[in-house]
Write a structure and sequence with these properties.
6-stranded parallel sheet, alpha/beta, 341 residues, 10 helices, binds NADP nicotinamide-adenine-dinucleotide phosphate, Rossmann fold, Dihydrodipicolinate Reductase, domain 2
């Protein structure tokens, strides 16, 4: 299968590597300038024997190449136009989280304060965020109409099998979910918004994808949302389906190893991505003295996406419908947030 990457200098080079290792041909990538494309090409060649072409305009790439898959790894305000164009060109689309988010320059913060009645309704009020959710729906319905697979790269869901095995070894069958907890520290924030809501916009998709996967029939109780936004941390608590959810997303530039934890029903595991002796990245889950090591979570997510295309059945870890729910939840929670400090 022929794959192209839009935005190969950051996480995109790793997408290219995983698609290559999963047996695809990385035919091309698109960037924004000849200089940055040269840098991206060098980075790709450092990871595998990249022999593809580069373009400074993704539309020209879509016209010139015959592609089965386009992997979108550009900033989130580019994702809508690029996903629509890739689907119209006939490709399956794998898109980085957050699915779509408006340009930070265009979105005015702080968000407008909501009345009590507004807070109680499960409606996204901010016009730009409402448009974002509509754009996400448009991408997913286009993929459905064209019978193309859409997958979102919110890779923590790929850890659920390992997590469940650890949980069940310690506690027995994982049935009712009463609580979900997620702590994610990051040294920096992708995108232009380096403080306040930025950490939530950048990272919430990971936590929300876990919530949606664990509680597939859940819905948000909008009145329950408490979201406290400080300069380097956003803490959100809310009811979703049967569970009380708490997500702590924190920018911590000083952390040697940013902490990442998640779990349900107070069974919380530490997560770490680290290279093994051969230099291959692995996902490590730890609870007390129990450790489970699996393949890299992005690798597992890419593999699942490819399996769905190759077999014509199944679903990606985060499919189009869950991706829309993800971005809608992100919008509902952040616009109910309160800045402090
Ligand atoms: N799942 C994860 O764990 C994870 C981790 C990191 C990032 N991400 C997500 O991945 C996305 C990219 O983040 P990043 O940190 O990799 O960003 P980055 O390092 O800033 O890279 C952005 C890439 O997008 C390209 N780009 C920007 N505007 C473009 C346009 N109009 N057309 C084509 N290409 C364009 C850039 O090309 P040039 O280099 O040519 O300018 C660059 O290669 C974001 O949505 C981010 O949230 C996810």
């Amino acid at each position: 299968m022929n794959v192209a990457i839009i935005g190969a200098r950051g996480i995109g080079k790793h997408h290219a590597k995983w698609f290559h290792l999963e047996g695809c041909h990385v035919a091309a990538f698109a960037g924004t300038s000849p200089e940055t494309c040269q840098q991206a090409e060098a980075a790709l060649r450092g990871l595998f024997d990249f022999q593809g072409r580069s373009y400074t305009d993704y539309r020209r790439m879509l016209d010139a190449e015959t592609l089965d898959i386009v992997s979108i790894c550009s900033p989130p305000d580019c994702h809508h136009a690029q996903a629509v164009a890739a689907l119209q060109a006939g490709a399956h689309v794998y898109c980085e989280k957050p699915f779509i988010w408006p340009s930070f320059d265009a979105l005015s913060y702080p968000l407008p304060s909501l009345s009590v009645a507004d807070r109680a309704s499960a409606t996204v009020h901010h016009p730009m965020l409402r448009r974002t959710v509509d754009e996400a729906r448009e991408v997913v319905s286009l993929a459905e109409r064209r019978q193309r697979v859409f997958g979102l790269n919110a890779q923590y869901v790929a850890a659920h099998a390992s997590y469940q095995a650890m949980y069940e070894a310690a506690r027995g069958p994982l049935r009712d979910i009463d609580t979900v907890y997620f702590l994610l520290e990051s040294k920096g924030i992708s995108g232009r918004m380096s403080s306040y809501e930025g950490i939530f916009i950048d990272m919430a998709s990971h936590a929300l994808s876990q919530v949606i996967a664990w509680l597939p029939d859940g819905t948000l109780d909008p009145e329950s949302v408490e979201c406290r936004i400080t300069q380097n941390e956003t803490v959100a608590r809310f009811r979703y389906g049967t569970a009380t959810v708490e997500t702590v997303l924190r920018k911590n530039p000083a952390a040697q190893r940013p902490r990442r934890q998640f779990g349900t029903n107070q069974f919380i595991v530490e997560y770490e991505a680290r290279a093994d002796e051969q230099g291959v990245f692995r996902a490590v889950l730890r609870h007390g003295d129990q450790t489970v090591t699996s393949e890299d979570l992005v690798q597992l997510s890419v593999r699942r996406f490819l399996d769905v295309i190759r077999r014509g059945e199944g679903r990606p870890f985060v499919d189009g419908r869950d991706a829309v729910t993800n971005i809608e939840l992100e919008a509902l929670i952040v616009e109910r947030g309160r800045r402090e400090g």
